Fold this protein.
Amino acid sequence: MVDWFRVESVPVSVAFSPMGDFLATAHMDSVGIFLWANRTQFADISLRQINPHSDGSTDGSVAGAALVAMPTTAGLVDENEETVEDVEMDAVYMAPEQLTDNMVTLSSQPKSKWQTLMNLATIKKRNMPEKPAQVPELAPFFLPTTMSVEHQFDFGTSDAANIPTDPTSSKLISVSSESQLARILYNAHTTRVYAPVFEYLKTLNPSAIDVEIRSLPVDDQLKALKAFVCATTCQLKSKRDFELAQAYLHVFIAVFTDIIKANARELEPLLAELRNELKAQWDTVDNLIRYSACMIEFMRTK
């Protein structure tokens, strides 16, 4: 149960709109139909603990149902007029990341994040300027930002005087340095604990995730690539962040397709385990989608 409320007149019929944004009710001793709007479309609503066996009044730490005035044709009421009783929410419901270990769970990340990651090349091509940008004579002062989801300034960046001017040395530094994702993968490959890999990727924006995956080293017998495949397999086995694992794997395969083909025999055991686990998890999700679609169609045509 998500929410409930009380009204002065007893309802005799209720019906939701197809999109769930309106509720139509008919009440005793009334010939009209009352329309209720879904508050979640206009403001952030916090879930609370509800006791379905309660009579609607405040029951200890469990919040009761609020008494709501009936809708009128006068439109919105005055902001100073209270139409809902203030109910003290002592116990706030905190949804767990995963209800059960056997349930395939999506992440709490916004949908646009993994969609942008999968279509990042198309977005960059579309946003590419037709003419090269011209540097102004008096360029404004900009602060560098960190590669994270939250917009933060990077005050630890060195000045321009400390940047090497030799292009050869600059290339050597960029090639020899390891990315943060590579270091986490190396550590996870040693400890066999792959949860920090996805926890780190969750903190990055789509562009930073793409750069981190593309920067994975292919030396040392493909140690970083093997660790990434093992981390994805482990994440699928945990049945968490299903859509993120799919998006990260999509970028990984698109970047390292040629390397995977050239070393297919060496990577075959890890890829076979990943394929089997991926197929098992997708079959579960696909069966649930088909079952829900059939039930919705049955209820609509019944």
